[in-house]
Amino acid sequence: MKIINSLKSYILLMIGGLATIIVSLLCGINPKNELKYRKWLSKFLIKMIAKEIIIEGNIDKEANLFIGNHTHNLDIALMETVIPEKLIWIAKKELGETPIIKYMLTKTDMILVDRSNKRSVITMLKEVKKRINKGLKIIVFPEGTRNKENPKKMKEWKSGPKALAEKLNLKVQPFVIINLPFAFKQNPFRVDKQKIKVIFLDSFYPTDNNWYERTKEKMQEILNKEYNSINE
């Protein structure tokens, strides 16, 4: 049975990959409809791994910067599914080195950051300001990369999102993703659908130097509480 489930999971993975390639091409060819394509793909991918999506807290329609924990590549599809508006993702430059992905990113207002370049923060601020002036919402993972080792505990946060919120006086809404990476089992590899939860914290404007550290602490407390209750 495990072998059969593993084969089914690999087939699902290939279907998901093919769908991603097709949608990436469509976004590049017809950027006017890219939002429709992206939302469809996100829902399609999340249906493969989620028994149910539980949302706690309210999404602030006035928030223009969302920050959250990064547990898996499909975190992006999850948030695209949960938040109906167009989202602008800040991602590492390396993502744009994949030809098909680069084709999509450059046509859909996404922002790529070169972490090896100290001036990248200045460029990021300028690009984000342009998107905010268009009424778009920015979303970023302060950890900078997905946490492969232990998704229950956040890694150190990068300084970029803090500077972004403070320099542009953005309204910040944190979110916490629970259980998504555990849809993927190993030995053998297989997909085991999970109840996935997204918890939205209260939104705010950054008003003091400690807001960034306090936000991380609050989010880690939620992670601890949620995973402790699952294990009980």
From TrEMBL:
The HXXXXD motif is essential for acyltransferase activity and may constitute the binding site for the phosphate moiety of the glycerol-3-phosphate. GO terms for biological process: phosphatidic acid biosynthetic process. It is found in: Cell inner membrane. It is an enzyme of class 2 (transferase). It catalyses: a 1-acyl-sn-glycero-3-phosphate + an acyl-CoA = a 1,2-diacyl-sn-glycero-3-phosphate + CoA. This is 1-acyl-sn-glycerol-3-phosphate acyltransferase. The lineage of its organism: Bacteria, Pseudomonadati, Campylobacterota, Epsilonproteobacteria, Nautiliales. The keyword Cell division does not apply. It is a peripheral membrane protein. GO terms for cellular component: plasma membrane. Keywords: Acyltransferase, Cell inner membrane, Cell membrane, Lipid biosynthesis, Lipid metabolism, Membrane, Phospholipid biosynthesis, Phospholipid metabolism, Transferase, Transmembrane, Transmembrane helix. Residues 64-180 form the Phospholipid/glycerol acyltransferase domain. Its EC number is 2.3.1.51. Converts lysophosphatidic acid (LPA) into phosphatidic acid by incorporating acyl moiety at the 2 position. Pathway: Phospholipid metabolism; CDP-diacylglycerol biosynthesis; CDP-diacylglycerol from sn-glycerol 3-phosphate: step 2/3; Lipid metabolism. Belongs to the 1-acyl-sn-glycerol-3-phosphate acyltransferase family. The keyword Mitochondrion does not apply. CDD domains: LPLAT_AGPAT-like. The chain crosses the membrane at residues 12-29. It holds the Pfam family Acyltransferase. One of its GO terms (molecular function) is 1-acylglycerol-3-phosphate O-acyltransferase activity.
